[in-house]
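[worker-b] picked up task from shared queue
[worker-b] task type: protein-ligand structure
[worker-b] ligand name resolved to flavin mononucleotide; SMILES cross-checked against name lookup, match
[worker-b] sequence length check passed
[worker-b] input payload:
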Amino acid sequence: MSEQGPFDAQRALRNVLGRFPTGVTVITALALPERKPIGLTVNSFSSVSLDPPLVLWSLSRRSPNLTQFPVGRGHVIHFLAEHQAQLAMQFATTRIDKFSGIDFEIDQDVDAPALDACVARFFCRTEAIVDGGDHLVIISRVLRFEQSERSPLVFYRGEFLNLGEPSAVDA
Ligand SMILES: Cc1cc2nc3c(=O)[nH]c(=O)nc-3n(C[C@H](O)[C@H](O)[C@H](O)COP(=O)(O)O)c2cc1C
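[worker-b] inference finished, payload out:
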C-alpha cells in the first residue's frame, strides 16, 4: 500500500485545481530602483469589485519580484490571446530576460510596460496586499482598460488550449 505524504497531497491538490479552466495573464511592472521591466505569467486572476473597480491575483512568495508590487505601485495586467502561448511560457521562466524579442511600450499613467496584441489590458495600481499562505494576494485597482476582439488563451489541466470559434447556445 502506498503512503500519501505532504508532497503527494500538494500534487493531488494542484491536479484537482487544474480541472478548473482559467484564462492566462501576464502582469508587468518596472522594478525599482533601476526601472528594469519585469513580468510573470499568472492564472490566479479574478475579478473582485465593479465599484470600486478591483481585481486580484496571487504572487508566489518565492518570486524574486516579491517586493515589486507594493501598495500604490503601477502594473499592467494583460489577458493573453490564443496565439500567445509562447509568450506565456517566456514569462513563466524565472531569472531570464523575459522582454527579449518582445514589443512593449512604457505606459505613462502607471509607469509599467504594456505588451501588444492581447485580448485586454488593465492599467492598475496595487490597492492592498493580503497574506495568502505561500502566496501574497495582490488586490489591484483598475485605473483604465482596453480590449480587442481576439480570442483568449485558456489554461486547463497543465496545458494551453484555444477555444476555437464560439458556437451558439440553444436556449
Ligand atoms: C499558466 C501559468 C500560470 C501561473 N500562475 C501563477 C500565479 O498565479 N502566481 C504566481 O506567482 N506564479 C504563477 N505562475 C508561475 C510564474 O509565472 C513563474 O514562476 C514565473 O517564473 C514567475 O516569475 P518571477 O520568477 O520572475 O517572479 C504560473 C505559470 C504558468 C505557466
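[worker-b] attaching auto-annotations
[worker-b] Residues 24, 40-44, 57-60, 63-65, 88, 92-94, 155 surround flavin mononucleotide (CB under 6 Å).
[worker-b] releasing lock
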